[in-house]
Amino acid sequence: MMRAILASTSTLHNQEYLEYLLPYLPDLFKNVQEILFIPFARPGGISHDEYTARAAEAFSKAGIKVKGVHEYNDPVEAVRNAEGIFTGGGNTFLLVSELYRNKLMNVIREVVKNGTPYMGTSAGTNIAGLSMQTTNDMPIVYPPSFQTLSLVPFNINPHYLDPDPNSEHKGETRETRIKEFHGLNSQPVIGLREGSWLEIKDNKVTLKGMLQARVFKKEKLPFEIETETDLTDLN
Amino acid sequence: MMRAILASTSTLHNQEYLEYLLPYLPDLFKNVQEILFIPFARPGGISHDEYTARAAEAFSKAGIKVKGVHEYNDPVEAVRNAEGIFTGGGNTFLLVSELYRNKLMNVIREVVKNGTPYMGTSAGTNIAGLSMQTTNDMPIVYPPSFQTLSLVPFNINPHYLDPDPNSEHKGETRETRIKEFHGLNSQPVIGLREGSWLEIKDNKVTLKGMLQARVFKKEKLPFEIETETDLTDLN
């Protein structure tokens, strides 16, 4: 039975790293002494060690130890043995490239589908979808594939941002970008606003947090869904 | 001798498509009766024909005809015979994929380096850099390579947007994304604000328009440059 928290962002405005998610860690990571952290997305280019220390500080507040996957000689074995997994945000292209390079994409999918609890934030959430193709990140490295974990049967756009009605900027809005995605791809996309997350529990996918989320389907008008909506069959 | 206009955006707030660039077309496209339009980036998913009609309407104000590259049976030959080329904006991943699929990347580079005048806006400007890796667009399709035309010896970020000091949004700023790019890549990046463009004339690259641009170099603090700055040797 899958168990996961897939959060739009790690950090809310005026809060500490992972602060708003801390109350939910004891349930997701029940009886877990130590989680395996995937630091590959390296936000702002920080090192794997620095990033792991940041995660460790936050998880210590929930009484859970953290070890980075880069600290293991055999990362595949580390994933197989992990009590729980947390993938942090940063650059999705870099994260996906490193997951493939270390041969971790398939094994993470396998263990999570078999019950290893998983948490993702931002890029770590984006990769839980069918593909990374609704990321907001820059293609700073060329990954061998855009296919990702497919823990949910749709794509995720983290840090979803509504169009600013007062903007004079002509760069594409997020909604336009997702519309362009649907010109070539058919899976639904859920735009997760900061403060929202998807909970996977007993293989059921539910929208959590205080906010609505926005759902985009090919050739349909986008629509809002309320928190607690069941998204298990969004496809 | 190369001749080009590489514009951050096609359209300024409260203006018509290409309006602010029209005064510069007669000089760039001197003695040109008809330009070849590359509509592959398909903004918002519009068709090649619709997009070409939009470009034709704008160029008609400068007395120049427009034909879309998709209207030719042999697009490579069409590029070789073109009096001038204009590549419109939209999705850079789609544009680059289609340029490779139609075997046009090398031939466009070749004819432009040999003197065929070129104009790009947005995605059409992004591809004038060494690679498309500082695009803002979503990876809606997987291109065979991120390498692009290399008309200038650096990368370009079109629609450059300064951080909003009042934002409570935690998605990465443009500056953070470019910093992440420089964690893995060494070429400079120029952030072109909307209303700015690069002029290439007699192989000299100059910042044009009323605004400053922002230059990012690996392991250096970003800095502003004034309009009319010579960027020929930015590398």
Automatic annotation (TrEMBL), chains A, B:
<keyword id="KW-0963">Cytoplasm</keyword>
<dbReference type="GO" id="GO:0016805">
    <property type="term" value="F:dipeptidase activity"/>
</dbReference>
<keyword id="KW-0224">Dipeptidase</keyword>
<keyword id="KW-0720">Serine protease</keyword>
<comment type="similarity">
    <text>Belongs to the peptidase S51 family.</text>
</comment>
<protein>
    <recommendedName>
        <fullName>dipeptidase E</fullName>
        <ecNumber>3.4.13.21</ecNumber>
    </recommendedName>
</protein>
<dbReference type="Pfam" id="PF03575">
    <property type="entry name" value="Peptidase_S51"/>
</dbReference>
<dbReference type="GO" id="GO:0005737">
    <property type="term" value="C:cytoplasm"/>
</dbReference>
<dbReference type="InterPro" id="IPR029062">
    <property type="entry name" value="Class_I_gatase-like"/>
</dbReference>
<keyword id="KW-0378">Hydrolase</keyword>
<keyword id="KW-0645">Protease</keyword>
<dbReference type="InterPro" id="IPR005320">
    <property type="entry name" value="Peptidase_S51"/>
</dbReference>
<dbReference type="GO" id="GO:0008236">
    <property type="term" value="F:serine-type peptidase activity"/>
</dbReference>
<dbReference type="GO" id="GO:0006508">
    <property type="term" value="P:proteolysis"/>
</dbReference>
